[in-house]
TrEMBL record:
<dbReference type="GO" id="GO:0009055">
    <property type="term" value="F:electron transfer activity"/>
</dbReference>
<feature type="domain" description="Cytochrome c">
    <location>
        <begin position="24"/>
        <end position="97"/>
    </location>
</feature>
<protein>
    <recommendedName>
        <fullName>Cytochrome c domain-containing protein</fullName>
    </recommendedName>
</protein>
<keyword id="KW-0349">Heme</keyword>
<dbReference type="InterPro" id="IPR009056">
    <property type="entry name" value="Cyt_c-like_dom"/>
</dbReference>
<dbReference type="GO" id="GO:0046872">
    <property type="term" value="F:metal ion binding"/>
</dbReference>
<dbReference type="GO" id="GO:0020037">
    <property type="term" value="F:heme binding"/>
</dbReference>
<feature type="signal peptide">
    <location>
        <begin position="1"/>
        <end position="18"/>
    </location>
</feature>
<keyword id="KW-0479">Metal-binding</keyword>
<keyword id="KW-0732">Signal</keyword>
<keyword id="KW-0408">Iron</keyword>
<dbReference type="InterPro" id="IPR036909">
    <property type="entry name" value="Cyt_c-like_dom_sf"/>
</dbReference>
Amino acid sequence: MRTLFLLLLLSLTMNAHAEPFAEGDAAIGKTMVEKNCIQCHASKYGGDGSAIYTREHRLVNTSRGLLAQIRNCNTMLGMKWFEDEELHVARYLNQTYYKFDK
């Protein structure tokens, strides 16, 4: 019984700090961002467009907010990405810029 309790506790602890977009593939997400996002972001923020992610008063402050913003861009730009593709982008952006842990 004690072993079961410890395993459950360990599992909960590990999940508390798990990557929020573990189902996504960051390498695929990077390719998608480079192909579909950089040009628009660079035209709005200059340089390579990464300032949209790193600006002081950015709109995205949570992992949920990140996914919502990706879905908003997906819809507004008519990219027709599936949910798994949105997760690829979210994982890449999170690992590269945001660093949300849940």
